[in-house]
């Protein structure tokens, strides 16, 4: 982070300096009192179940002398309060967002925003690898992609950053709009329109409209990039003053994808054609669907002058964020860890990876998918049907709604199906279910914490 004075913090947050010197400098932003240190600017965030003003004394004791607060009384009661510089605001979360927007105005950089129902983190990572071939680029750490994570990401950008890649998540209307207004991206990427969060957004049309909030502040200088084989993301449906760039298989896209070769856990290769130029890409991450994400990354890089040859070098180095199709092996068993989250589309994509990974037996351990609303039973059942049709040899369904996965698999003719209402039940019988030589896919929604199964398998 570029160092800022408390006077700049006052200006950027729209608050009022009530203690200390405006000349005091801060070098990093901190929202976790347990990690506060000297030169940090501590934001006392207030959430539904916590109020960080309770930890102001702890923060001061740790050496942090610069604060943004909304409760002046809490500061006055804290030991060491006379030693700090503090800016008072009405809402510390909103102040964090305002400061991020202010900070971006101090930097000379291009901004790429990535959203979508699935694949946004993988696409963000791929764009970063592509951009690093030519520029100093930074991106979200982990999954800091919400109304707090995106501002924190922005405020972590170093002064000489040339390209910032921002993943933007949402589960209701207005959230992408807030982040888009804050970041004002030059380039937007929407990976797809699936069923994630349909419980909150009502329909796929609602999901489409929520994702398109990314373009609310676009004009003729901006570019939106989409994979147009998606039912919703195509030139017929998307209209705006901005430039639209598409990827796809139909031969009419700006970037035409062809010849996808799937090598299972070893990764994939695919070909892209753009304006008569053809380039072969090797991507060392599994899943045919990652050809779509890779094509989006190439198209994004091209808007910044990165050639397809340079993009190919970048994609050949890709390592995805943890728990996204990570392949691990131990004691003759291979585990495909895709436990970060799950939706119907990503479940099917992970099953495809399983079926292209070598082993003596293919095993899918699949948990509940959340936030599918009234479509939940049907969508779980369709995943089970898909697993059977693709040739999964043993399916283990874990969770309340996962019973529909088991039912769908059985109805489609899969003989080896086991169902457990919770992880505890499966883990109690796991040793008798898993065999040496198995390739095991483990996947479910974040709240299922399916990584606990991976951990025990790998012990």
From TrEMBL:
<feature type="domain" description="Mur ligase C-terminal">
    <location>
        <begin position="324"/>
        <end position="446"/>
    </location>
</feature>
<keyword id="KW-0131">Cell cycle</keyword>
<feature type="binding site">
    <location>
        <begin position="116"/>
        <end position="122"/>
    </location>
    <ligand>
        <name>ATP</name>
    </ligand>
</feature>
<dbReference type="InterPro" id="IPR036565">
    <property type="entry name" value="Mur-like_cat_sf"/>
</dbReference>
<dbReference type="InterPro" id="IPR004101">
    <property type="entry name" value="Mur_ligase_C"/>
</dbReference>
<keyword id="KW-0133">Cell shape</keyword>
<keyword id="KW-0547">Nucleotide-binding</keyword>
<protein>
    <recommendedName>
        <fullName>UDP-N-acetylmuramoyl-tripeptide--D-alanyl-D-alanine ligase</fullName>
        <ecNumber>6.3.2.10</ecNumber>
    </recommendedName>
</protein>
<keyword id="KW-0436">Ligase</keyword>
<keyword id="KW-0573">Peptidoglycan synthesis</keyword>
<comment type="similarity">
    <text>Belongs to the MurCDEF family. MurF subfamily.</text>
</comment>
<dbReference type="Pfam" id="PF08245">
    <property type="entry name" value="Mur_ligase_M"/>
</dbReference>
<dbReference type="InterPro" id="IPR005863">
    <property type="entry name" value="UDP-N-AcMur_synth"/>
</dbReference>
<dbReference type="InterPro" id="IPR051046">
    <property type="entry name" value="MurCDEF_CellWall_CoF430Synth"/>
</dbReference>
<dbReference type="InterPro" id="IPR035911">
    <property type="entry name" value="MurE/MurF_N"/>
</dbReference>
<keyword id="KW-0963">Cytoplasm</keyword>
<feature type="domain" description="Mur ligase central">
    <location>
        <begin position="114"/>
        <end position="300"/>
    </location>
</feature>
<dbReference type="GO" id="GO:0016874">
    <property type="term" value="F:ligase activity"/>
</dbReference>
<comment type="function">
    <text>Involved in cell wall formation. Catalyzes the final step in the synthesis of UDP-N-acetylmuramoyl-pentapeptide, the precursor of murein.</text>
</comment>
<comment type="pathway">
    <text>Cell wall biogenesis; peptidoglycan biosynthesis.</text>
</comment>
<keyword id="KW-0067">ATP-binding</keyword>
<dbReference type="Pfam" id="PF02875">
    <property type="entry name" value="Mur_ligase_C"/>
</dbReference>
<dbReference type="InterPro" id="IPR036615">
    <property type="entry name" value="Mur_ligase_C_dom_sf"/>
</dbReference>
<dbReference type="InterPro" id="IPR013221">
    <property type="entry name" value="Mur_ligase_cen"/>
</dbReference>
<keyword id="KW-0132">Cell division</keyword>
<keyword id="KW-0961">Cell wall biogenesis/degradation</keyword>
């Amino acid at each position: 982070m570029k160092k800022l004075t408390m006077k700049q913090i006052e200006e950027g947050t729209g608050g009022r300096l009530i203690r200390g010197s405006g000349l005091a400098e801060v070098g990093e932003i901190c929202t976790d009192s347990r990690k506060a240190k000297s030169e940090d600017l501590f934001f006392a965030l207030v959430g539904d179940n916590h109020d960080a003003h309770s930890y102001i004394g702890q923060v001061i004791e740790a050496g942090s002398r610069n604060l943004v607060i909304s409760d002046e009384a809490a500061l006055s009661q804290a030991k060491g309060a006379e030693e700090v510089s503090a800016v008072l605001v009405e809402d510390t979360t909103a102040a964090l967002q305002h400061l991020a927007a202010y900070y971006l105005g101090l930097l000379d950089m291009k901004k790429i925003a990535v959203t979508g129902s699935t694949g946004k983190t993988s696409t963000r990572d791929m764009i970063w690898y592509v951009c690093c071939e030519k520029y100093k680029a930074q991106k979200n750490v982990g999954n800091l992609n919400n109304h707090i994570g995106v501002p924190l990401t922005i405020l972590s950008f170093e002064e000489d950053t040339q390209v910032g890649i921002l993943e933007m998540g949402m589960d209701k209307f207005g959230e992408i709009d807030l982040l888009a207004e804050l970041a004002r991206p030059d380039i937007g990427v929407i990976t797809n329109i699936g069923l994630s969060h349909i419980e909150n957004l009502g329909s796929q049309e609602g999901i489409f409209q929520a994702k398109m909030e990314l373009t609310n502040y676009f004009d003729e200088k901006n570019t939106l990039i989409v994979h147009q084989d998606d039912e919703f993301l195509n030139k017929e449906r998307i209209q705006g003053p901005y430039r639209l760039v598409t990827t796809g298989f139909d031969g009419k896209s700006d970037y035409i994808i062809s010849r996808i070769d799937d090598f299972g856990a070893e990764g994939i290769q695919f070909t892209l054609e753009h304006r008569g130029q053809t380039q072969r890409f090797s991507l060392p991450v599994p899943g045919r669907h990652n050809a779509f994400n890779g094509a989006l990354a190439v198209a994004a890089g091209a808007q910044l002058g990165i050639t397809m040859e340079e993009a190919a070098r970048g994609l050949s180095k890709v390592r995805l964020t943890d728990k996204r199709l990570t392949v691990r092996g131990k004691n003759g068993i291979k585990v495909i860890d895709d436990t970060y989250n799950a939706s119907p589309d990503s479940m099917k994509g992970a099953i495809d990876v399983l079926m292209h990974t070598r082993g003596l037996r293919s095993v899918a351990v699949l948990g509940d998918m959340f936030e599918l609303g009234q479509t939940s039973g049907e969508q779980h059942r369709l995943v089970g049907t898909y697993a059977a049709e693709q040739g999964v040899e043993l399916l283990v369904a874990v969770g309340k709604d996962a019973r529909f996965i088991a039912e769908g698999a059985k109805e489609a003719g899969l003989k080896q199906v086991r169902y457990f209402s919770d992880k505890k039940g499966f883990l109690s019988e796991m040793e008798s279910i898993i065999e040496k030589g198995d390739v095991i896919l483990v996947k479910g929604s974040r709240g299922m914490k399916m990584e606990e199964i991976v951990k025990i398998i790998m012990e």
